[in-house]
Fold TatD family hydrolase.
Amino acid sequence: MRIFDPHIHMTSRTTDDYARMAAAGVRAVVEPAFWLGQPRTGPGSFTDYFDSLIGWEPYRAAQFGIVHHATIALNPKEANDPRCRPVLDLLPRYLDKDRVVAVGEIGYDSMTPEEDDAFERQLALAVEHDLPALVHTPHRDKAGGTRRTLEVVAASGIAPDRVAVDHLNEVTVEMVRESGCWAGFSIYPETKMSPPRMVEILRRYGLDRMLVNSAADWGVSDPLLTLETGRAMLAAGFTEDDVDRVLWRNPVEFYGQSGRLDLTGAAASGETFEGSSIKRGGS
Ligand SMILES: [Zn+2]
């Protein structure tokens, strides 16, 4: 099984995770820019982070035969902090970089006027830079937040098939399917979406414009839940080709719209990586 995780926060994972992912068949990842837990106090810590997403992290991934791309944005949560908003003016220089395949994660956290403004401005940047957009949906009031998200996307003028609306569940999938946007699902060990629930959604709504990710970050999460979902699909009677479509060809198609997806360097299946050449930092 070859796997492309279209939404995973490798910044928060160790080399052990990279090794396990490589052994499980993960050959490509996209890491969206997001909130880092500790609130940032100014644009400089964003640009250092963005530089790491297009420099250090791809290098780290390459040690394990995993191709790494990023999406860049001011995340919804920090869009509310006046100290962070100047980042919006710095985004264009990152949106021109080769390894950046979408604007994201954008969207809503608490649905404030500040979030409205940042969301609209960043959708406009996606159109201007001819990039797809990766949209986060809020964890509170998921249905209301997703509905409003789709209205803002529709009003922005971006083509719906260039937008992935992520972190969906049984309540929000239908409205996103109807909108023509891609539907993204984050599979978690305890909350939100599980592999068996994901399989039911695929059975009901089909495989077209469906993205499955592990979203793994510092919370309780597991970077191998993409593999578990593939196994659950096979156990439920889906074919190997169906699994390949959802876990590989769909993310290639979505991010391929950027014109920048370069999968040379992805390990051939069966190829293993025994060790990392990354040196230990510090003293
Ligand atoms: Zn995320």
